[in-house]
């Protein structure tokens, strides 16, 4: 019965993924909002009795499902970015300046602020740190309304003017992997005790080595696949010539697998692989075809997960939620993330040399639209499998509430705010 219900839910998600974007195009309502709402209504009926909704009993299923959704989204996001990142070009690095600031300043500030709020609310230090780490990264899955639309190919010039969408897209692509060291810090704090017992290991291995391995694995896999697809001497291997866009799936699976097997962060490997692949034959239409495959799969998986999340909300997922979880979730969305983003993007007092290519309204918009989503659920599920003290029902309820609140608040505001920004730019 459970398998049959899963097919019903998957079919409904696929149908909605096809029709919702066009139906909601002119309204300030996003597809994720609708799917969560539909799921909540379904949860009030006796239909989903056989679905695996309890996160404590189905942690592994939740972990691997959300893991798949995130890596598919990361491949799509990486392929969508037109702006190159050339390692030996300082100018290229400076063009990504807002992204580096949000990652190096904004994300640690967010993690620290949420952890402090959790600790002040009575949570053990490890649990508070996990809450901050899980909720810190913005989500490439649910932020499509404020991200770049897709790769510009066929000889089109790259639009360098839309710094806002580029910043939000590149940040979401990178911070899912870069939040992992802090999740591991929470795990080590819960399992190893005092920070002095594991601080050097964390810095050397979890923060530096695993990030480096993940990035290098993504670069190598992306370069190899790009060479095969575009320049192989064997015509059968030059899949770009015949437009075989399923290479996008092979690339995301291969890069994630290689990154994880080598001991790096697979999320970083997938995004960097997509960026690396995108750098080859940048104007080729094949990139758009690959992006379309990743985007369609991402949309189906995302709406499936959101529908299940909506069902779970009215089937007990929020039973452990209290005022602390509500306060922390809303504080993150309305205060912590905006404040951290504004501080990260603020001009430096160096006679203009530290400015970012964003207007003041754009900086405020980037700071506000830190969408929380599927990645937060994955990190919580992963950590819960490492230590039982990190598997509290309260954490599941708080993260679920924060994700749904983000879907609602950001979903309502995305269309009018982005329309206003676009109008001002014109």
What's this entry about, in short?
The chain has 17 helices and no strands. It has 426 residues and is mainly α. The radius of gyration is 21 Å and the shape is globular.
Describe the 3D structure.
The mean pLDDT is 86. The chain has 426 residues and is mainly alpha-helical. Helix content is 70%, strand content 0%. The longest helix is centred in the middle third of the chain and has 33 residues, at 199-231. The chain is globular. Helix 3 (59-80) runs antiparallel to helix 13, helix 5 (97-120) crosses helix 7 and helix 11 (247-261) crosses helix 12. The protein has one domain (2-425): Na+/H+ antiporter like fold (Up-down Bundle), CATH 1.20.1530.20. The termini are far apart. It contains 17 helices and no strands. It has helices at residues 2-23, 31-43, 59-80, 90-95, 97-120, 125-135, 163-178, 180-192, 199-231, 239-242, 247-261, 266-278, 286-317, 323-345, 360-368, 374-384, 393-425.
> Which sheet architecture does the biggest sheet show?
none
The number of E-state strands comes to 0
Broad structural category: mainly alpha
Q: What fold name stands as the CATH topology?
A: Na+/H+ antiporter like fold
The averaged pLDDT comes out at 86
CATH class: Mainly Alpha
Number of helices: 17
Beta-strand level of the residues, as a percent range? under 5%
The parts where pLDDT drops under 50 for at least 5 residues are: none
Overall geometric form: globular
């Amino acid at each position: 019965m459970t398998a049959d219900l899963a097919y019903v839910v998957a079919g409904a998600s696929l149908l909605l993924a096809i029709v919702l974007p066009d139906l909601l195009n002119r309204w300030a309502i996003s597809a994720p909002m609708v799917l969560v709402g539909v799921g909540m209504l379904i949860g009030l009926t006796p239909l989903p009795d056989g679905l695996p909704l309890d996160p404590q009993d189905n942690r592994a299923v939740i972990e691997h499902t959300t893991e798949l959704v995130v890596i598919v989204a990361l491949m799509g996001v990486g392929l969508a970015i037109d702006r190159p990142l050339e390692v030996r070009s300082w100018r290229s690095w400076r063009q990504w300046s807002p992204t580096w600031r949000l990652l190096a300043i904004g994300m640690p500030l967010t993690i620290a602020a949420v952890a402090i709020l959790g600790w002040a609310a009575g949570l053990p230090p490890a649990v508070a740190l996990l809450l901050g780490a899980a909720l810190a990264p913005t989500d490439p899955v649910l932020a499509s309304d404020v991200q770049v639309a897709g790769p510009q190919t066929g000889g089109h010039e790259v639009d360098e003017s839309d710094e806002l969408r580029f910043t939000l897209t590149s940040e979401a692509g990178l911070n899912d992997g870069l939040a992992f060291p802090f999740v591991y810090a929470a795990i080590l704090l819960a399992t190893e005790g005092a920070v002095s017992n594991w601080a050097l290991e964390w810095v050397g291995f979890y923060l530096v080595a695993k990030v480096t391995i993940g990035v290098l694995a993504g670069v190598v896999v992306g370069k190899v696949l790009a060479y095969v697809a575009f320049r192989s001497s064997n015509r059968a291997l030059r899949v770009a010539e015949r437009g075989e866009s399923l290479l996008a799936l092979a690339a995301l699976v291969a890069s994630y697998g290689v990154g994880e097997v080598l001991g790096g962060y697979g999320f970083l490997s997938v995004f960097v692989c997509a960026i690396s692949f995108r750098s080859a034959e940048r104007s080729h239409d094949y990139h758009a075809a690959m992006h379309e495959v990743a985007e369609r799969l991402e949309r189906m998986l995302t709406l499936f997960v959101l529908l299940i999340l909506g069902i779970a909300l009215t089937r007990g997922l929020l039973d452990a939620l209290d005022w602390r979880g509500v306060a922390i979730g809303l504080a993150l969305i309305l205060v912590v993330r905006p404040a951290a983003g504004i501080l990260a993007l603020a001009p430096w007092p160096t006679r203009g040399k530290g400015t970012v290519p964003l207007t003041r309204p754009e900086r405020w918009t980037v700071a506000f639209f830190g969408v929380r989503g599927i990645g937060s659920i994955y990190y919580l599920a992963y950590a819960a499998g490492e230590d039982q003290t990190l598997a509290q029902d309260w954490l599941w309820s708080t993260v679920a509430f924060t994700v749904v609140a983000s879907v609602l608040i950001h979903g309502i505001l995305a269309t009018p705010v982005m329309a206003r920004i676009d109008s001002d730019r014109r």
